[in-house]
Amino acid sequence: MAVQQARAQHRHRRILDAAQRVFSRSAYRDASVDQIADEAGTSKGGVYFHFPNKEAIFLALLDRTAERLRKKIESATAAVEDPVAKADTALRTVLGTFAKHRALARLFMVEALGAGREFHQRTAEIRGQFAALIEQHLDVAIAQGLISEIDTTIASRAWFGAVNEVVTHWLLSDRPRPLEDSYDALRPLLMRSIGTAAGTDRRP
Amino acid sequence: MAVQQARAQHRHRRILDAAQRVFSRSAYRDASVDQIADEAGTSKGGVYFHFPNKEAIFLALLDRTAERLRKKIESATAAVEDPVAKADTALRTVLGTFAKHRALARLFMVEALGAGREFHQRTAEIRGQFAALIEQHLDVAIAQGLISEIDTTIASRAWFGAVNEVVTHWLLSDRPRPLEDSYDALRPLLMRSIGTAAGTDRRP
Amino acid sequence: MAVQQARAQHRHRRILDAAQRVFSRSAYRDASVDQIADEAGTSKGGVYFHFPNKEAIFLALLDRTAERLRKKIESATAAVEDPVAKADTALRTVLGTFAKHRALARLFMVEALGAGREFHQRTAEIRGQFAALIEQHLDVAIAQGLISEIDTTIASRAWFGAVNEVVTHWLLSDRPRPLEDSYDALRPLLMRSIGTAAGTDRRP
Amino acid sequence: MAVQQARAQHRHRRILDAAQRVFSRSAYRDASVDQIADEAGTSKGGVYFHFPNKEAIFLALLDRTAERLRKKIESATAAVEDPVAKADTALRTVLGTFAKHRALARLFMVEALGAGREFHQRTAEIRGQFAALIEQHLDVAIAQGLISEIDTTIASRAWFGAVNEVVTHWLLSDRPRPLEDSYDALRPLLMRSIGTAAGTDRRP
DNA sequence: GATGAATGAGACTTCATTCAT
DNA sequence: CATGAATGAAGTCTCATTCAT
Question: Is the pTM of this model over 0.85?
């Protein structure tokens, strides 16, 4: 019985893995359930046993990806003390992950949009979660008097957007330079924007 | 003859107007040529007389929209002297336009993505053009010693991304607050990020 | 599993049978996949599950028909000794088959043409195979000194063409007389053309 | 007034000329009225002023082509005395014309088929006319005791078919050898088939 | 649990034909 | 006479989803 459950979970994951590869290659509407089934080494019927429809696959994949990224960020920021450095680390983690997994970045930043109203809600939620991750650190920073009193909701959103745009540009350009280089130029801008002394190096 | 040409041009525009409405409602792949034809008050064949295919409609619409926005920005910034204020005005114009035409914003910021690799090239180009619009002002500002020496390519991209994210959030949220309010909070951040004295009010 | 496969094969054949009827009725471009699906008692999607596109259906049908005819000819000529009589038998078989299945003849002789360059290659091949079937017998006949030394490639092609034209006329005329009658008049001409004594009856 | 009539006739011919080029390139169903209009340097409406529909264009073209070929044959055979040589000359003329105008041959032998029942009637008629042209000479030859008593209807049809097949093969092969060479090999066969002494040279 | 054949709605696109100018 | 914009029916093909085995 337990064996069967484990097997089912395994299948579930295999399908999600396949979906990640397929959705990274083609946009939501261009990806077909057949492709996912093939890539997962199962049949169309098999996919439909584990997921009620195509949308559910995409949403589950989005959640799983967000969850993993969140965990990565949390473990990366755990060891850091300074709240501004924490926020910095969070952004750097996002960027570093995308730099390593370009397909994943495409899925997360580009594909999730433009696929019908239903997805937007979820996409907005996830983006909000990441912004919140940054926001909480900025709030602490203000409380500790490290930075000036700013609208941290807007600030974190702006930060996320700035990083987002840099990543997107990197995604859409044909022969991109290393993503990390861009962050080195971006970082002082972000720091200054919240009123940190420009020269202060707050890297962990 | 001239009458016919004029009528054709009129029809051409009507189709583009219709396409704008339809693409604002549904993503590229979800929008059908039938819908566009209906909305334009013509037949499917009529649409195909004016455009070779669906993609061409979308691209033409994208170009027209970008062109209009660019003109608006240029005329808005023409009267402004200070380069930093020029950049500020440019962003404010983008934001203001989107605030008034929510559907247009959706088209421009969200729909253009996630519709197949072919679109990305053009989308990237257009985004680049807008970033360049800001970049040139920042370059002047540096030359005039108004702001610190920064990587203006990255800075303009970051600014655009920050605004972008704020707009997108506004687009995806169900009951959004006025977009302009957000900009008031965002503006000091942007200013500070490029090394302008925080207190300096550079509004035109 | 085996049951499903058998059913699939059955459906495959049913579609081909339906296609034969439809293509016999209308030319390639005038025949629609919808008609084939209806005639096969299935859906459009069902047809496309078994064949990648319309062209493949036609080509498969052409191949099947040619294959069947070839087998018939081979089994008919197997029992015949004299090579000239063999060639004669081959032609008579073609003619007899067409006489019984008028629609099939139409498909084979008329429809295959005029449907785009892609088909010509295959059509030419098949025609060539049938001419070759005759040619080999004529070659043997020459080797045995039964007929004069002629260009057997041209001769077999000419024979095939002569029969072809007689069949086509029969196909295109509204109230045709029995096709076999025509062959009785045609046969001596063909015999004489290769230098066989006119009076010699070489019927098997 | 007369000028207008002449101009109309001129247009009519230009359209037919254009149609000949277009139908030589593509099969009937693949050729569009737009292409014909473009090629004729006029508009779609212009074409429809001169012809009621697409089918009429094709039929008119077929008739004109047949008429021209018939005239060529008649003037070629006029100078020849011997009836067998006349028949030979007729076939040679057909073959020579096709050899020079490959596109025309395609139109006449291949395209005319496979384009719906309506065309078959006319095609059959035209083929019959050409066979009749040969038949009449063979009839005279029999009356003069030059050849054996054969079914000249079948014989002429067989001859036409034999030539037809040789031409068709030449049309469908990618790198064909000169068509006339084939006729040199074909001619003795045809001669012998009607009982002419093989050695007798009846060339005009 | 899994398979894959089958469905059927719907997508894009083409084009013969009409008709106001 | 000629133009070319417009129509609308029809065609090929795709694919999410279902279901008998």
Answer: no
